[in-house]
Amino acid sequence: MRHRRKGRTLGRCPSHQRALLRNLASALFLTERDADLDDNAPKVKGRIITTLQKAKEVRPLVEKCVTLARNSMEHTRAAAEFATSAARNSPEWRSWRTSDRWQKWAQAISPVVNARRRALEMLGDKQAVRILFDTVAPRFSERPGGYTRVIRLAKPRLGDNGVRAVLEFVGVRDRVIERSQAPQFEGAAKTGE
User: Fold this and answer.
1) Which domain holds residue 122?
2) E strands within the chain?
């Protein structure tokens, strides 16, 4: 019996499940990279195609990562006022490093460093974490949740007839509903006269 055992096993042992979900989540974030010169460039940014069950299982992990990055943006802005633009190991940088401003900067930036470490633990890919914090999180700064959508595809997978789905970020390819206007005819008689 599966009493109180949530989630899908996806036919894998627990360590393989975690690895699968990490790889899917980091693959979704890596589609947002600037891959003009890359041999393996994604077809569409912010979208992966997988099975419906895998997409539904990886969605909470992606949402947690985006929320974690979104919440750290406030601390990044707070630390920016104490930061310096001097080059590393320059005389200006050394004087800043020994000043009181460095202590305040280190205190303000520590939650961001902790959030990046937690995201790296969840995703397992440094480049995906960098894209998450630099590109994806600022896009969803005003959105309180629901950063992804799962769309079921009509055509099944070719090899085993599995149900396929698209997992993508919202806000990029959202449909805008436009009402059609009633046609206006010139010289038409007014009704009611």
Assistant:
1) 14-169
2) 47-51, 148-152, 164-169
Any domain includes 44: yes
Q: How many helices (H) and strands (E) does the chain have?
A: 6, 3
Q: What is the pLDDT of residues 7-47, one digit of tens each?
A: 899 999 999 999 999 999 999 999 998 877 788 888 889 99
Torsion region of 44: left, alpha or beta (phi above 0 gives left; psi -120 to 50 gives alpha) = beta
Q: What whole-number distance in Å separates Cα of residue 72 and Cα of residue 77?
A: 9
Q: State the virtual CA torsion across 163, 168, 172, 177 in degrees, nearest 10.
A: 40
Q: Which residues contact 75 (CB under 8 A, 6 or more apart)?
A: 108, 109, 111, 112, 115
The model's pTM is 0.84
